Here is the input.
Amino acid sequence: MATLIQQLTNNASRQFFLLAGPCVIEGEAMALDIAEQALAITQRLGIPYVFKGSYRKANRSRLDSFTGIGDEKALKILRKVRDTFNIPVVTDIHSVEEAAMAAQYVDVLQIPAFLCRQTELLVAAARTGRMINIKKGQFLSPQAMEHAVRKVRDAGCDDVAITERGTTFGYTDLIVDVRGIPVMRQFAPVIVDVTHSLQQPNQASGVTGGLPQLIEPLARAAIATGADGIFLETHQNPAVAKSDGANMLRLDLLDGLLTRLAQLRLAVNELDN
Here is the structure.
């Protein structure tokens, strides 16, 4: 039986796959609305879709930042999205104990970039039997991700992908080096995060901003360079989102973006034939 990552990458339409949703689950209605709209667009374009939502944000910059509505409540919403629309869902985990708990509700466990070298976390996630999405640490080279993937596979899970989310470039910037995409594809399918990669920390305030106008150029570069999937965060109104709103894509812009990216993917496929 094909693994989930095999199903996502070997789709009949030969399209990239999409992981998209809000940064953090803020409530049931907003999650279901985002999933419904994104699914309608992706089904029309033949893009396999995985709904993304963090049930808890454990790595916020400030102590008073919003972290979630409660673990069990948010995880139940993720499961409702999965059951309502019959689509896979992905969420982050942050500790060994969370792996088995979250695996009861979701199809994909995501390892945050800051934790991608934590052996016990990778092994615990792998042993749940869920697909594992490892975000590349901002401090790592593409070549170093081979070791993270190997840990997951050695623990018995071949259902694994890598997400590129930028590399630290000085103190206040991230840069996506597209040369890393074909490098990491030697180890596992590669997803490019086109929203977190655009974060711009403000040294004075400590508040993270973003460059959402660069989402499409970065996504186009990812598709042109052979990325298997695109990761992005989207919200009905990013200005009032409780986490990472500054670099999110407005939900009403998702259709146009995905339509253009799907056209680009078909052109890239023709060049590759």
